[in-house]
Write a structure and sequence with these properties.
Structural class of chain A: mainly alpha
Oligomer: heterodimer
CATH topology of the largest domain in chain B: Arc Repressor Mutant, subunit A
Helix content of chain B: 55-70%
Number of strands of chain B: 0
Helix content of chain A: 55-70%
Number of strands of chain A: 0
Strand content of chain B: under 5%
CATH architecture of the largest domain in chain B: Orthogonal Bundle
Number of helices of chain B: 10
CATH class of the largest domain in chain B: Mainly Alpha
Low-confidence stretches of chain A: 1-8
Mean pLDDT of chain B: 80
Number of helices of chain A: 5
Radius of gyration of chain A: 22 Å
Shape of chain B: elongated
Largest sheet of chain A: none
Order of helices and strands of chain B: HHHHHHHHHH
């Protein structure tokens, strides 16, 4: 599917979808970020895909629970460091 | 200038800096270790060894650089040594070509986004955590560092000792595998038709 958006920088749907994750990760140049943002604002074909990928990545990020190290591990680490000379 | 902690007389300033800058990342290092080992006992060993190595080589840490990334790099290396020593899992082999071929074969799920509605009705958290744990290790590390720990591609590349392009590639494969796992999860939960998500 090649829906060309002519405003701003021309970028077709293929290019947008191909770079969607880089876009969501903020790993593109400012120019490319702007071009994709402009495309998504107008393209009814690409926006649902973008919305899905964004939701997916948000769900992934949300799995980062505060998972504290068990007290036993903490104690072992500190004991090992003390033995090595750390004064804690 | 701080001296080396490993010298005969520990530099108190350096020691204090280690306490303030490195120790607060213990929970993060543990979480990362657990994501790699998938075994609490092994994660325990990896974390202990990571901090011991970090302490002994604290003089090599560049003040002002990101301590968490530095610790993760050590943690990853400790894990790789542990894995090499134990050789307990065949799929830990790290053969990127083989794993990527496997992932490619599994990419035929079609338009994953078609299942967006289904997935929006699924409690993604537990399913995702399980799916992350089942990813081949090379993909799991990239996904955990970037998607869970929030690192930039270049930071994750530094931790894993691979080019940024490899991180991008592993993320692509890893994320697709996770999406496919979610679709299967949705199917098994009766939320989507079996025919539409066969892989």
């Amino acid at each position: 599917m090649y829906l060309t958006v002519t405003q701003t920088v021309a970028m077709d749907c293929y290019d947008v979808v191909r770079q969607l994750w880089d876009y969501l990760d903020g790993e593109l140049t400012d120019e490319s970020m702007d071009a994709i943002r402009a495309h998504l604002a107008q393209c009814k074909q690409c926006y649902p895909q973008f919305d899905f990928e964004r939701t997916f990545l948000e769900a992934l990020a949300a799995t980062r629970r505060e998972h504290p190290a068990p007290n036993m591990v903490r104690r072992k680490v500190l004991a090992k460091l003390r033995k090595a000379g750390l004064e804690v | 200038m701080t001296g080396t902690i490993s010298s005969a007389e520990p530099d108190r300033v350096a020691t204090r800096r280690f306490e303030v800058e490195a120790l607060p990342w213990l929970d993060d290092v543990y979480r990362f270790a657990l994501s790699m080992t998938r075994d609490e006992s092994d994660a325990d060993d990896v974390v202990q060894e990571t901090f011991l190595r970090a302490y002994r080589s604290w003089h090599t840490f560049e003040p002002g650089s990101e301590c968490r990334k530095w610790l993760f790099t050590i943690c990853r290396n400790v894990f790789l040594r542990l894995r090499e020593r134990e050789r307990r899992r065949v799929d830990y082999g790290g053969d990127d070509a083989q794993l990527e071929a496997l992932a490619s074969a599994q990419e035929s799920v079609g338009s994953i986004a078609e299942h967006a509605d289904v997935l929006s009705r699924v409690d993604l958290g537990p399913a995702l955590e399980r799916a992350i744990g089942e990813l081949p290790e090379v993909f799991r590390s990239a996904v955990v560092l970037v998607d869970v720990e929030g690192m930039a591609y270049n930071e994750a590349a530094s931790v894993l000792g691979v080019p940024v392009g490899t991180i991008r590639s592993r993320l692509f494969r890893g994320r697709r595998l996770l999406q496919e796992a979610l679709v299967i999860f949705g199917r098994d939960a009766g939320l989507t038709a079996q025919a539409s998500c066969e892989v």
